[in-house]
Amino acid sequence: MSVQILPAPEALARLAIPLGQAGGFSTVIDARSEDEFAHDHLPGAVNWPSLDNAQRIVVGTMYKQVSPFEAQKRGAAMVAANIAQHIERHVLDLPKSWQPLVYCWRGGKRSGSLALVLGQIGFKVTLIEGGYKAYRHAMLLDLPQRVAPLQWRVICGPTGSGKTRLLQALRAEGAQVLDLEDLASHRSSVLGLIPGQPQPSQKHFDTLVWDALRQFDPRRPVYVESESRKVGNLTVPEPLMLAIRSSPCYALELSEDERVGLLLEDYDFFVKDRAFFSQRLDALTELRGKAVVQKWQSQIAAGQMDAVVRDLLLTHYDPTYASSLKRNFTQSGQAIPLRADNRSPQAMQALARQLVTL
User: Fold this and answer.
1) Under 8 Å between Cβ of 30 and 103
2) Comparing 94-98, 103-107, 175-179, 295-299, which segment has the lowest mean pLDDT?
3) How far apart are the first and last CA of the chain?
4) Based on the domain organization, do 188 and 263 belong to the same domain?
5) What's the pLDDT tens digit per position in 133-142?
6) Is the domain of 163 the same as that of 304?
7) Which pLDDT score, from 0 to 100, does residue 195 have?
8) How far is CA 159 from the centre of its chain?
9) Which one of 106, 140, 174 terminates a domain?
10) Mean per-residue pLDDT of the chain
11) Is 249 a catalytic residue?
């Protein structure tokens, strides 16, 4: 039997080694339930529940209402059956050289049971000491160390100027990009909800950010958008936010007509579902007043989408963004201007190539 227990910081360091390479792990296995896994998990992990969602409820209820001993007997039977199924489904064709990393909530019974069986088969198994809880603590301590050496370049510009499109073009040109809105599944404004695409949990967002940071080369700049502290319901980690806000800026410029056209393209679900758009505008009532919001909603009902978007830009988004930029981004006053000819992919690609060359 070969089961090694590894402190969480060491496990984090070895996660940087690609799966399957020498010193790395062949597979990262989360032995917690489906709901725990969905809430957050280690980068690249797969879910092999020792107890599934329903079974956890059964065992937990028995633990409280009957006795811990009876609950442990019932739980052991369930865990044994589940491990047998995982071996049948995933393990029978694996070579002896396969080396998994296994964890559960605190590195206890669920991951320990799976590791014991895999180790007795003859695999070299590693357990995270302290489980997911220890991993998260170590990850949050490590995150500032990942931020500090990076050279941040901040793409500023009012709503609809094409910041996200430029980031995508930069990535296509081989530049390093941190797209926080993509990681957060949100477009970072009161209307930024993406239908049918829920945001991750705060814990999983932190993991996604950390995972992206550890893959950057500190010798090359990393491009990022001038985000606020909140992206939808999620908070950008403080060390990252402070670094971004103190970094050199580019000011992306796009004509007003092009900005309106860009937003109508990127928020086409509002164009298709006017009732949804109208309902979302209720969130602006406190800021802009009931009469203004009702005027916008009447225009939406009449199909005057262009007029609503233009008014939203000029009376709401632009003043708010300008104030926030001046207040929070210390180098925004010295931002290098970037003028996009239009909102097309070709125009953004030209700007991206210009930046990459610089």
Assistant:
1) yes
2) 103-107
3) 56
4) yes
5) 999 999 999 9
6) yes
7) 81
8) 21
9) 140
10) 94
11) no
